[in-house]
Amino acid sequence: MPASGNRRTGLIVGLFAALGFSTSGPAVKPLLEAGWSPGGAMLVRLSLGAVLLLWPALHALGGRFHLLRDEWRVLLVFGVLSVGCGSTFYYLAVDRLPIAVALLIEYMAPLLLLALAWLRTRRRPPAAVLAGAALAAGGLVMVLDVAGQIHLDTTGLVFAWIAAFGNASYWAVTAKPLAVPPVTLAGSGMVIGAATVGLLGLVHVLPVVTPAVQVTVLGAHVSWVVPILVVGTVPTAISFGISAISVRMLGERVASFVGLAEVLFAVVLAWLLLGEAPLAVQIVGAVLVVAGVALVRRGSGTHDDASVAELEADDELAVHAATGVPAAGLVVPLVSSVSDEAALDRLPA
After folding, report:
1. How many domains would you assign to the chain?
2. How far is C-alpha 243 from the geometric centre of its chain's CA atoms?
3. Residue 60 lies in a domain
């Protein structure tokens, strides 16, 4: 069981990662306004992130390249689903839906994790966890100020839910006790994710347009290189790298709810950089999100160790009986990752 100091460190690192992720929108928006396509911005962002994470990823790996071969399935799921498709389908959803609606659906990922774990294990989460989830979801709706009569495109909704599934897979995969170091996992995800977006561009599913233009940032005219360096460094290389570390410390459930802070930070940045002052309802929603995260953390810590050990043993026997391979040596995809949540996510009360 991780030390409480590690949990506190994981929480701090997770919040810094959320802050970094929240800079993505303000950094990319000038590029989009100047003629870049979402696919072009995403491809360059992930490619730059892959280059910046190359040395840290290789250094952390320490020449143990066999780990990449042993866990290539997990790396492929992470790169394609968590990094590539998650981001790409979010932008596709934004093309058809109001940004607030698309973002709200994508950030239903923590609730999706809870639902999948409940369905797989047939064990109802503690009441505090359910209450926290409800508070966080309600608060998020208020923060995004989703109200009024709007037309929701059906295809856009499908894209947004695919993005949410990709987001959920990110928390599930990064929480697994993999032999691959977290930074190496993030770097591998950047490479595979960039390749995925590039492939979508080649088949014309996602237009890739990257003109060499001047953009306006905080009232100044600068080269396109400036915002792309920001988005490739802060919300990509740095945030993905340290986020993967924090998820290992906190577990997928708590880390995914801490990730909701990205939305709160995005509201503040929009206020400071774009003059979009938050409404009173958004401030109330922020309080509810924080309260919901606190309840989820406390509720998750009430799991009885004996029940956890029993669930671990049951899962081990089930996997061995079905495959003839010990569960510890089996590479488990996304849904199985979520099913292991009770055994992995041992959190403080």
Report:
1. 1
2. 9
3. yes
DSSP notation for 238-301: IHHHHHHHHHHHH-HHHHHHHTTHHHHHHHHHHHHHH--PPPHHHHHHHHHHHHHHHHHHHHHT
For residue 221, being part of any structural domain is answered with yes
**Residue 162 to residue 159: CA distance in whole angstroms:** 5
Q: Using CA atoms, how far apart are residues 108 and 114, in angstroms rounded to an integer?
A: 10
SS3 content of the chain, % helix, strand, coil (to 5): 75, 0, 25
What are 289-331's pLDDT values in tens digits?
777 766 776 666 544 333 333 333 433 333 333 333 333 333 3
Tell me, yes or no, whether 247 lies in a domain.
yes
What single-letter amino acid sits at 245?
I
DSSP run (H or E) holding 39: helix 38-61
Does the reported pTM lie above 0.90?
A: no
Residue for token pair 């994790």: 113
With H, G, I as helix, E, B as strand and everything else as coil, classify residue 216: strand
User: Would 349 be classed as within a structural domain?
Assistant: no
Compute the residue count for the chain. Answer: 349
What are the contacts of 115-120 at 24+ separation with CB within 8 A?
Answer: 116/168, 116/335, 116/338, 116/339, 117/253, 117/338, 117/339, 117/341, 117/342, 120/335, 120/338, 120/339
From the list 241, 270, 258, 265, the residue with the least C-alpha distance to 83 is 241
Pair 134, 75: CB distance under 8 Å:
no
> Per residue in 141-178, pLDDT tens?
777 666 555 566 778 888 888 888 888 888 778 777 78
- Full residue range of the structural domain in which residue 121 is found: 4-344
- Name every residue whose Cβ is closer than 8 Å to that of residue 311 and which is 6 or more positions away in sequence: 121, 123, 342, 343
